[in-house]
Design goal:
The complex is a heterodimer of chains A (237) and B (291). With 237 residues, chain A is an alpha/beta fold. Chain A folds into two domains: 155 residues, P-loop containing nucleotide triphosphate hydrolases (Rossmann fold, 3-Layer(aba) Sandwich), CATH 3.40.50.300; 68 residues, no CATH class. In chain A, helix 3 packs parallel to helix 7. By secondary structure, chain B is mainly alpha-helical. In chain B, helix 2 crosses helix 8, helix 2 packs across helix 9 and helix 5 packs antiparallel against helix 10. Chain B contains eleven helices and two strands; from the N terminus they run ααααββααααααα. Classes of the chains: A alpha/beta (237), B mainly alpha (291). Chains A and B meet through helix 2 and helix 3 of A and helix 6 and helix 7 of B.
Chain lengths: 237, 291
Amino acid sequence: MALLELKNVNAGYGEFRVLFDVSAKVERGQIVAIVGPNGAGKTTTLRTIMGMTTLYSGDIVFNGRSITRMPTHKRVELGLSMVPEGRRVFRTLTVYENLVAGAITKRAWEKLEDTLEMVYNIFPKLKERRNQIAGTLSGGEAQMLAIARALMSRPDVLLLDEPSLGLAPKIVIQIFDVVKKLRDEAEKTILLVEQHVKHSLEIADYAYVLEQGRIVLEGEAQKLMKDERLKKAYLIF
Amino acid sequence: MISVEPMLLVQNIVNGVFMGLIYSLVALGLALIFGVMDIINFAHGDFVMIGAYLTFLLATTLLVDPTLTAFITMPLFFVIGVAVYKGIIERVLGAEPLIQIAVTVGLLMVLRNLALMIFKAEPRGVPFTVFGFPINVGPITIAASRLVAGIVSLVALFLVHMLLTRTKWGIAMRATADDREVAELMGINVKKVYAVTFGLGISLTALAAALIMTFSRADPYLGLLYGLLSWVIVAMGGLGGVIGVLASGLIIGVIEAIGISVVSAGARELFIYLTFFLILWFRPRGLFGRR
């Protein structure tokens, strides 16, 4: 059974429908990528999983349990966590306080010290800068902090929304490296939304292609990389 | 030329410092609610006024010192704050600012007219307090009640500062103030944070009211004075946290004292608002403005 599953999801914002009949599965221990052009509904898919959109019909099942009617904070408590697009660290808080804010749920709070150590191991730079105001971090550091902050809730599934957006090419490679490590070493399950289609498919196990709110293509990432339609559509290879 | 007795000026300034600390305490609740929730609570000063009348009623009924009534009024005001949040404020979250203003101005009207209905326009003072004696330091005389009120205010400001910087709740409040949506994504129950923030902000007015009643009287228009002063302090402090509120409160207290000494008691507000305009002229985002 998939760890996270979307079943015929129709969702949007108020009257404005964005997702049409989206079904997708995320298996435990995998990186699943959602790729597609701007405005396809990638971010909306992640926001719908977190309960921040209007769900018209369909079901979202996490760990065998329907979470469709739960408020966002309950979903975090159950083990979902999202890194929002554009990083959005708490700019007026220190690096350390950002991490503490990420561990506010009951499930995470008791293990705060352990998680902090784990996160500092993955991102040693954050330990150096723990007393710095987050608003003064560079783009790459802020992205590291945003990922670390999401890890502080000890999620089973990490949702990453455009983690490479607006970052220098060298930093982009570092970020993808971290995402891969999170699966391989920290045994996290990851749902990745990205515009860097090639990088994403290289590290992903499975991928969905979203266009105009509909899933138009899906399959194992390695196979999708060879798909002629995808190559043409994104001119990536 | 206006001539001022130097010792009198010093004495008034010392008094102004203590008044400034109390103003800071009143403004702190408003600053918390505005900072975390982005709600302009126009009824803030009138909670001080209701608190003052309640202090009068409790102190004269139970025959205890007005300061002690805070142990009852603070928890009570916390509950009232949460109830007002749940009943009124939560419904207008995310609504247009005009609607939010209308709602809190409506609340102000209800509180003020409630006081007018029950107490008419009569001021009421508590005729006793253990702090009703003067303290002489050299040529300066300070009322013990103001000294105590100032010190208790400072302690309360310090405790709120510790709450905001050292505790789980404080960090959740500041994260919510910073980015409400992301706070939700982190698993913070934002509506609970709002309820607690509103409750805390209102309960601080009860403490301030209990302290004020050791040297002043309750009257239905007390809310006007403290409401406006709080707004000036929050606008000047510019979201600079507890430190910003404290600094602005002290400036207002001292400026007011100088105004009283140099011109007349009637000129105090003139001085306060002149300072306010000047500061915002040169620093439009307030003394500690960030955004």
